[in-house]
Queue: 2 jobs
Job 1
Amino acid sequence: MAGARQGKRESGNGKGARILIVEARFYEEIADALLAGAMRALNEAKASVDRVSMPGSLEIPPAIAIAVDAARRKRRPYDGVVALGCVIRGETIHFEIVSQQSARGLMELSVARGLPIGNGIITVENEAQAFARARMDEQDKGGDAARAALALVALKQRLGRR
């Protein structure tokens, strides 16, 4: 089995971007670790951040749609979104449903709406893997999701100027 990718962790500029974080709080400590990484990356980019918490990862895509629509109606649209959550395999097929459907929902929203979304919903076998992926001093998947969203925001801004 291959080890974790150790590529560069650069994002697009995204400076001053308005970013929405939608996080699942089902696993509180893991959620805190993912959020810490995302906030560090967004603060470094000097992005402004709003945050919405949901009970679980399946609620993230509809929460994004609701929040993005509300922000547009108020003429304060978000430039991008960071989705944060954790799905740990259990003894039933619920893991497959939640992991696949949350990812599908995020991809559909992103492509259909041209909405930059960084997917930081981690899917793991156990709690130890979750913490290893979530902690900033380890794999920092929250930070990676924020940097991915910022890179997409920067791409959209760059191509939109042409």
Job 2
Amino acid sequence: MNTLRRTYFWPRTLFGRLTVILLLGLFTTQLLSFTLVYYERTRSSLGMMLNYLTRDVSSAVAILEQVPAGQRSDWAKKLERKNYHYLLYNISPGLPIDERTRQTIVEPLSKVLTPEHALMATLSPMQTNVLLVQTRLHDGSPLTIEILLGVLPLSESLIGVLILQLLVMILITWWAVRVATRPLAHLATAAEALGTNIQQSPIEETGPVEVVHAMHAFNLMQQRIADHLTERVRMLAAISHDLQTPLTRMRLRCEMLDDTLLKEKMTNDLDAMHSLVQEGIAFARDGQGVTESACKTDIDALLDSLTCDYIDSGKDVRLTGHVGYPIMMPPNALRRIITNLLDNALKFGQSAEVLVRMDQASHITIAVCDNGPGIPEAELSAVMQPFYRVDNSRNRNTGGTGLGLAIAAQIVISLRGELRLRNRSQGGLEAEVCLPVVMRH
């Protein structure tokens, strides 16, 4: 639980993590640089301002000393500035000032004024950001200098430049990380597609040296797997071809037997051997992926024709539901899937029903239901493995070869779909195939 909490806001993709790391690093560096520049700028501006303040106040006090008392009010208005102005009366002292303010403002003012101008500095009782520097002119008249204490404002142009720098930094980081991780994304896509199409084209070996090495190793692995599967099919084909002659001789000799019961048993064994070889070759071929191209297919017509063929052969098969429009789908691969599922359903049940529907126009779902004994829950996933049979007997009429569901599952995976098995509440098994629709017409 603690691990989940710690990684909840952490991106799951390499692209996202690298982007966050680089952005945090660049943003921290940018923030430190801005802080240093702003600190130096503040110190420089503050020094210039204090230098100007001391000279201006010294000149203003000298002028007020020279003009008649009746004209000082007009001159005080002329001498005031944006951050400080002059009052010709005393103000009740407020809070004491801190040492930093005394050293940076009060002491420089004391140095530029004559010793007769004794200074008393406090904060305004009404506004704590206003410094009151009070003294007296040579004739004893009070003089108060109100100085506004505040942080130097940031210029609008500086804020705009900072925002522009941040946007440029984000764009460059996004582009750099995308360029760096794109080869890895291609490698991941190729690895994902490898399970459905072993004959896909090799990926282009581009990118950083480490990624190129990984891509080269992946291409070699794909080629070795393809060669191995090709050799497997070639071997099974050769075995099938070589078995044809002895099987034919054995069938001829079987026909010459006088014992009818023995002749029937041997014929059944020969048929089982032939079927086993053919199904093994079919599994090896279909396990390499569907090479048939998708085309505009009328699913309703295909399923109707398929169920009619079973009905004509005396099987109890029903079709429920329809698609209503053609879709892009490899028809022979789909026919092979439904045929294997129907054969499996009719092997263990007396009837079968085919249910078809479209799910949000993006997936087609075809379910084959039977009224057989079903499959134990613990073996629902195992029955889709090759040569696995729930019935462990060697009776071909009940056990079979264990390849029907395995071949259907291989083809479904090649089509990027999913085959799910579940027991029905009313009895029997439901085999549901969910396939993505490439294109709707």
